[in-house]
Fold each of these.
Amino acid sequence: MEVTASDLPDLHCHSTASDGILSPEELVSRARCQGVTILALTDHDTVSGVAAARRAGQREGVTIVPGIEFSTRWGRRQVHVVGLNIDSESAVLRTAVGERDLFRRERAERIAARLAQRGFTGALAGARSFAGQSGVLGRPHFARWLVEAGHVQDVARAFRRYLGAGKAGDVAVEWPQLAETIASIEAAGGTAVLAHPLKYGFTRTQLRQLLIDFHRAGGAAVELMCGRQNPTQTRDLRQLLASVARETHAEPLLCSVGSDFHQPGQSWCELGCVRLPEDVEPVWNLWHTNPLERGRPVDT
């Protein structure tokens, strides 16, 4: 894939197909207004918004990279893996999506039951109303319902009181393991990217081991920058990636970049808010396809 210095890629964002606020069409329009020229729609555990994003990309002059953000497990810890440049019609990918859909529905029922024990009845129906037709239920949908129902003032408080780690709505899910997830992305012709490695709260030793395991399982790239972050964090992550490459005697993991955009009004994760440094090898160097017309999907 040919990316020029004037291009601005954003390879991680969300729409109403999962837990974003904007529809795929609105998302693409906003991306164009923010100067983004290459956009990957990476909704949680679904590709249901990709077709609409492609059509919008053709109208808006934005190249759409079909993607997904899979929930997965590394040992007993949950991490996220982004699949980029995937075949969204892949049978293997569809199976992986269906498996996670079942997990999400079961978790949603358990969350609703726990909230009901605390007097918050109607949570499941309320969360579903925010999830819309996608049906990809997540804790953000419960948070938005708690706000609308008047139980909390805002989404942040909903997580602090009821949905965050160790709270009533923190229901464990046995997501597929890391290697299986990477294999599903590869089977769909995609590139596996470790999402926001600095946001899991891992120690440096834990993060080093995650990067090693991810690389050995076939992972290709890491989000060096995900939303605005401290330059010191970016420098430290680059040093860690170099150290892992030396330790594993393998080619370094490539670098990806994205905003992790969910909704307007958050400048630290606005579409196009970060750009990869020029002296790193970007993930799109793996995509050896013919030069694209603006608005055409990468996998055509």
Amino acid sequence: MTENVDSIDWSDPSDGRIYDPDDDHAFPDERLNNVLAFVDNDDEIAAYLAAQNVNPVARKKYNDHGTKHISIVRNRALCLYDLLKAADVEFNGAGDQGLDEADEAVIIGLAAILHDIGHVVHRDDHPYYSIPLAADVLDRILPEFYDTADRVRVKGEVLHAILCHHTEEDPLTLEAGVVRVADALDMERGRSRIPYERGGRGINTVSSQAIEAVALEPGDGVPVQVEIEMNNAAGVYQVDNLLKAKLTGSGLEDLVRIVALNTNEPGDRIVERIEL
């Protein structure tokens, strides 16, 4: 069944930390909020978010990369950006292009929403398939908000962030780095529920069952602390091989601290606390 745009709840509280357009933020948010309001009522984007889950979940027995994943990544990317801006971190993507500070959040928001649409073609190498598909969507959306020169520049920055979220190409902007890290923050227990219930027992699926909660908070001595609660040591795979791997090379390595706590394993705990 095709998912209707009305069924997408971008503010689902189960996502953890939520970006609320009505809150006060550490950055100019009016332009972002206008873009998000437009996107939230776009039938083509809603269709992509539903269709992009077929290859990874139904055919590859992988974890969810559809509407729910995008909601989580979008919320966490914007909240991560807000914490960084509150700490006066200077971003370079929009600025290098002569764009406004207000465009930083637009770049992050659109890249977070569109980063996985290449899954409609194939799970393997999906960021490269996402580029032409996202470009078509951006060509339709951006003229609503930008003149020709600025929409070309915003489009390029969004596509850069999409490309770098899951490839060997390192992000060249902090905006792209935020999207890359936020993609890995979708890791709570149950996020691999569908392939797990269908018999998937790979390390990515099993270890994801060990992650109870993820929180983003201001850090002590760093702008952001990511706090991860695990119920057993299997969660180390998620923290080390996925989140740490995406943080490395993101440009945010010195700005984000990861703390993982093993809170519920009986007996002698193999891992009690990991700090990165």
Amino acid sequence: MTRRDVLALAGSLPAVLSSTAASAQPSTGRRMGGTPTAFLAHVRAAREGGSPFDIVEHCHSMGLAGVQTNPPSLEPEAIRKFRDRLEAYKMHLVTDPRLPRNAGEIAAFEAQVKAHKEAGAVAFHAALTGRRYDEFAAFEPWKEMFLDRQNQVQLAEPVLRKYKVPLGLENHKGYRSAEQAAWLKRLGSEWVGVCLDFGNNLSLCEDPLDTARTLAPYTVYAHIKDMAMEEYEDGFLLSEVPFGEGVVDLPQIIAMLRKKDPNMIFNLEMITRDPLKIPVFTPKYWATFDDAYSPLPGRDLAKILDLVHKHKPKQPLPRTAGLSAAQQLKLEDELNQKCASYAHEHLGL
């Protein structure tokens, strides 16, 4: 199951939410919620057991302040019950409505937006891309994809403006931060911004602080994570690790985003999996970069390789290969709990 599959699956997970960002804030003052991809082992275990994973109850049991998931349906009664449960827990909600791919899908998109807002969504999320260096072996197909995604968002924008709920486009390894910022500047909509993923753009040879500086002005909310790297023959391995064990300057990025919005929402995305291979020494990795349209300067590559070389992981990178389902579940719980405890004790989340 890919990450995009799980984000789609989130629409079928039972969940709950709050009506406004203010009412969503729990009594503990915590602002960190959870994303579906932080609980992949739980999703798999629940599916194999024949019942859906209740991400709301799981996040609530961890003391998290919110959740990224979709209502169980668009029916008014289901929406009401969904909202009531999240309001009782004082949890915020971010949802993943499916963006229209053409004009014929705008009405269906609006129906989702209307229902999700009634359910209490304070923001929407969209990933839209996979890993460009894995999916594309040439520049033109990547460019076509990028233009198509821009068209999707252009179709969605009037609906977002009508219902006044912001959409956060995740920096999801499909385009570099300067490209995403330039796109949003051209669009010029207060209802389309960024879901800032703290670590994704390391795969595109960007320092996390540089990514944050570029995208912070547009950020609606964030996927918080720490990342560690190590060398391998074709480039470097990249992995989510417990907060405080990686190369991401969490306090500085959090401060940057809180300066932009004191009520910024941070959703945990500690993905428990094998490290990703970032093959920067292979021709295919560079196939989608063009010096004029989508540049990746050599100095950025050098900066990341220096980071890999000088910041060895404090612990072995997490791996799930060879683990039983029960062992994967145990590892996932341990890593998520480490992140939640660190966030509460050191990050004010």
Amino acid sequence: MTLKGIHHLSAITANARENLDFYTNTLGMRLVKKTVNQDDTSVYHLFYGDERGNPGTELTFFEIPMAAPNQPGASSISATSLRVPDDKALQFWKERLEEKGVEHEDIKGRGGRNTLAFQDFEGQRLIFVSDETNQGVPGGVPWERAPIPQEHGITGLGPIKLTVRKAEPTAHVLTEVMGFRQKSSYASPEQGQPDIVVYETGEGGSGAEIHLEERPDLPFERQGRGGVHHVAFRVENLDELHQWIDHINQAGLPNSGFVERYYFRSLYFREPNGILFEIATDGPGFDGDETLEHLGESLALPPYLEPHREEIEAKLNPLDYKPGV
């Protein structure tokens, strides 16, 4: 029972149209699934990833049109990393962000890797991380029809940063329940604050890391647009997921039990500081109801929502997607 790494991360947007433009045209990710939030079918759920939305490459967004701006703070997923192949790619992205007028920091080291922090149009906190020296979980393959040279394209999700007021309870769940191991630490960018501790799972590397930041000085986050809803971790298949459900129950952590998401199967629970974790299967994947060539082009609904298509589509604003260049 070893988690393989990061599976996906789900964040919040208030504007699906602008979100689609930013993540496909500015960042060059592929829209691999245009569907709805299965818990609220009146809003979109957009999945971006590599050429086929492989596990570990998926950045997803719930559209909540009336969401207030996110108020950063503790008990939060405070930064999402996007892997790029090497340091040369970081320089490409620095120039592209400047060309597109996207707010960003300088290239600098974090946790032993070169990185470039930036924000999207809603303040979503993102970090390009170079895989120049990475060993561990392999990344995906950028889509060849994206408006970004493939050699510089985003290859998946990198380290995810958690910010909490007290690190020990979260660290205990990561190591004693979820099987992460402590790898290293690095200085906090905030003077006088504890070091940020790096935990890894599976084969390790940038696609399998959690960076845990303790910030007792912060208020609690008020989640809104530009914030992150949850992070998911990879298991191989349904059998392993059921083992994890039993394991999480035995650990005494309140949880959702088995949840059918059609494109993968899941378990949800909150760690002691209140951050929502998901454990998700690598399959079945996104090409069961659309061909690989046409992923994301039409509104996709799992079979149990298909009978309600007409009602669902009536509540959604049309969202056109013309892939490629």
